[in-house]
Each structure stands twice: as C-alpha cells, then as structure tokens.
Design brief:
alpha/beta, single chain, 22 strands, TIM Barrel, three-stranded antiparallel sheet, globular, 2 domains, ten-stranded mixed sheet, 12 helices
Length: 462
C-alpha cells in the first residue's frame, strides 16, 4: 500500500525553511496550541524533499493554519534516535526548527508525522514501547509540539512487535504530555482497512489506548473516486464500532480520512469534486479528521494531464493550493479571496475601452458563464470560481477587449458549463476551459480533456 511519493530532488529547502537558524524551540518561542480542528485538518508537507513550497505562502493563500511535517524515522544506519527521513538528526536540526518558528509567527502550528511508507521506523529499532517513546519525546520537546501523528505503514505495518512499540509509545506520550493531540494513520482498503490494520486496532484496545482519531488512507487500493472512498469510510466505521464496542456517534468521532490529491501511486484519480464529496461526508458525519498527502503536490504539473504520479505536482488541472483549501474548510476557515498573484487586493481595471460587464471582484463567487471586465478585457467564467484572477487562471476565458464606445466584444456562445455532479448522456454538450465538448456516452464526474476513457470530444473553442 503506497502512500508517500518521495522523489529526492537534491534541492535546497531554504525558501521553505527561511534563513533563521534555531535550535530547540522552547516554551518562550512555541506558540499556544491551535484548536484541535486545525491539527485534524493539517495536510502533510515534506520540508526537505519534493520541492517544498513556502508554508507561510500557502497559509496566506488558503487560510490553512497547520501542517503535518513528514517524516521522523530511525537513522539509516540503525539506532534508536529520531531523524528526519533517516538522514537528519533531530538533535542537530536547525532548519525544521526555523520553519516551525515561521509558521507559528504567522499564527499557525505544526504536527509532526512519524513513519510513512518505506524507511526504517523507530518502532523497528527501539527495543520497547518505553524506548520508542523516549525517542519521540525528544521530538516533542525539541519543537514544543502540541500534536503528533503515527503513520503506520509498510514495512512496519506487518511487524506486530514494531506496531506494538509504536502504539505503546503513543500511549506513553499521551500520558506524559497532557493535551497532546495524537492521530494514528493507517492503510485503507475498500473494506475499510486490511487484516494488519484490524490487528493494529486490536492491539490498541488491549493497551487501553485511545488516540484522538484513527484515520485510513482510501487510495492505492482499487478506489474509483469519492463514492468508493466514502464507502470505505463507512466500512471502517463499522470496524471501529465492532472492535472497541463504540456506538455510532463515538466511532465517527474517532474516525478520520487521509486522502491523496490528483493521481495516486496506483494510477487512481481524485479530483477536486472527489475532495468536495468526501469533505461533505466528513462534516455531515462529524468525522474527527480530514487531511491529505500532500501540500508538495498541490500545484499543477507543466503537463496538467500527465499520466505519471509526481511528488511535486498533482497530475490534474488545478490552481495552486486548491486542495489545501478543502482542509481549511474542514477546520472551519473560509479561504481568503485576495489577489493570488500579489497577495493584496485585486488591482483596478485599466484600459481605454468602456466595459459594460461589471469589474471582476475577488470576493464574488461567479457561476459558469458569468461575464466580468478586467484590464480592459471581458472575461467569461468556464465554471464556478472565486478569487481567481482573470488572465492568471484557466477558469477565465478572454472574450477580447472591451469596446471603445461603451460596448463589449460580443463573446462567443458556449453551452452550459460542465458540472462534476451532473450525469450526461451521449451527445450532451458542455463548455469547459473555453471549449465546447460533446459526450460520447454516459458520464459523470469525468473532467473534459482529463479522463482515461476519453469520453469527451473537444469541438474547439466556443
């Protein structure tokens, strides 16, 4: 069960981490804890690999306040001391500390994730739960953590002794650090979780250990969009009730999902509409956690429809940080609507022609087909949008310069905008990205120009 797409890039993390050199983040420099919903929404971010973005820029663009920094592992050469990715000793770290301080100075916070897919885990190399907990306590203390994530995956996932060490360590940390937010993340299957995941839950029950949530990863296991993911969450809900004897509300209140944006390692596709569907499910069932892998991938590839999985982009059409806005919404934030290019208010509309369409406003939500004026041009929305600047986002189709005598250039006629929630029969026409598309057969949720079945025929620009 793959999860963490790691593509070493030998790139500097200076832009992400900042120039500040810090050691231990003590009580004076550590910010007060955020409310738990922010730790429950924190998306994963690799600070040292996969072309890390600037976390503060992402915060400003999305409203997200917390990130899940990944990953803490055992040293590549063995031993029971914590490192970042097996190579950077936590005891000597200054770069992650600088990043955490920058995030906190901007009003946010971090959780740190231990484990992930691949690599040697401390549960494998430390001889007992107590020794494993002592290693992780170094991380909690150094960074003044208020939250930590135990991401139990292969090869540790299939090692009962190692998993026992991790769960025992989590329980000890929970006891020794009052208020510490603890999440446990594990593999998801279409049946909820597999045999090893169920055994992990049984071990937790035998310890009397209850974290803030148990989260499954419903991808890389034969999933086909949001309906399969919500079905897996329902199946996992049943497993939680049966294992712990919880009623339905208690089980939902200790359940979470950790998604993967765009193309998964197994070639599955999870687009914006899928994230919205799962978000609706999570909020309506009062799930305890909604997050995803990863912020490093929350941007469009040079080829937005590439058929490979990347650690640095999503392989689906999107605007930057679009998937992170879903986690911010789960936490209860309204993503900001400032100019995404400058971070400030939208610029005024220059130009000599008189425009009859209302000037674009970053705070207005526009439906597909809406007309606005911006920089002396008329623009038409291809689908619903808010806060995306005409000329810098593909949602806006340029209809030409505004007329010099008070009119606008007559825009071409487009069919109704494509909608992810609408079922289309063969022969149906829609507009998307400024083009007209015709369905070859019945379809729902397949983005025109971006689906393996090639269901949509491109009829050219409207």
């Amino acid at each position: 069960m793959k999860r963490k797409t790691l593509i070493p890039l030998a790139l500097t993390a200076a832009a992400t981490l900042g120039a500040t050199t810090l050691g231990v983040i003590n009580a004076q420099t550590a910010s007060a804890a955020l409310t738990s919903n922010w730790y429950a929404s924190a998306p994963y971010l690799m600070p040292f690999d996969n072309s890390p973005p600037d976390a503060v820029d992402v915060m400003n663009a999305t409203g997200q306040k917390a990130f899940q920094l990944a990953f803490i592992l055992a040293p590549n050469g063995g031993g029971c001391t914590p490192t970042w990715d097996g190579t950077r000793a936590v005891s000597a770290d200054t770069e992650a500390a600088a990043l955490i301080s920058r995030i906190r100075a901007a009003g946010g916070d971090v959780s740190v994730s231990i484990g992930g897919y691949g690599g040697t885990k401390l549960g494998q190399t430390c001889g007992s739960p107590a020794a494993t907990a002592a290693a992780y306590q170094q991380v909690v203390t150094k960074y003044g953590l208020k939250a930590i994530d135990f991401d139990l995956e292969e090869p540790e996932y299939e090692n009962a002794a190692a998993v026992h060490n991790e769960l025992g360590a989590a329980q000890i940390l929970q006891q020794n650090n009052p208020g510490l937010y603890v999440s446990v993340t594990t593999a998801g299957t279409t049946s909820g979780t597999g045999w090893f995941g169920t055994e992990m839950l049984k071990d937790a029950k035998s310890l009397g250990f209850t974290p803030n949530n148990y989260s499954i990863m419903p991808f890389d296991g034969g999933f086909s969009g949001a309906s399969a993911q919500t079905a897996a969450a329902e199946a996992f809900h049943t497993i939680l009730m049966n294992t712990f004897g919880w009623d339905s509300a208690t089980a939902y209140g200790h359940e979470g999902v950790s998604l993967m944006n765009g193309r998964s390692d197994a070639g599955e596709y999870f687009r914006q509409a899928d994230f919205q569907t799962v978000l609706d499910y999570a909020t309506s069932h009062h799930l305890a956690r909604y997050t995803y892998w990863s912020v490093n991938r929350d941007r469009q590839c040079a080829d937005p429809n590439q058929s490979t999985t990347s650690g640095t982009c999503s392989s689906v059409p999107q605007t930057a940080w679009e998937f992170t806005k879903y986690t911010a919404r789960f936490a209860g934030a309204t993503p900001p609507t400032t100019n995404p290019t400058t971070g400030g208010p939208p610029p005024t509309t220059p130009g000599t022609g008189t425009c009859t369409a209302a000037a674009w406003n970053s705070g207005t939500a526009y439906s597909g087909g809406a007309l606005v004026s911006y920089n002396g041009h008329t623009w038409k929305a291809a689908w619903w949008t808010q806060g995306e600047t005409p000329g810098s986002a593909s949602v806006w189709v340029d209809q030409g310069t505004c007329g010099g005598t008070g009119g606008t250039t007559q825009p071409p006629t487009c069919p109704a905008a494509w909608s992810a929630g609408t079922a289309y029969n063969g022969g149906a026409t829609v507009s998307y990205g400024g083009h007209k598309w015709t369905a070859k057969w019945w379809t729902q949720g397949d983005i025109p120009g971006n689906n393996a079945q090639n269901v949509w025929t491109d009829n050219g620009a409207c």
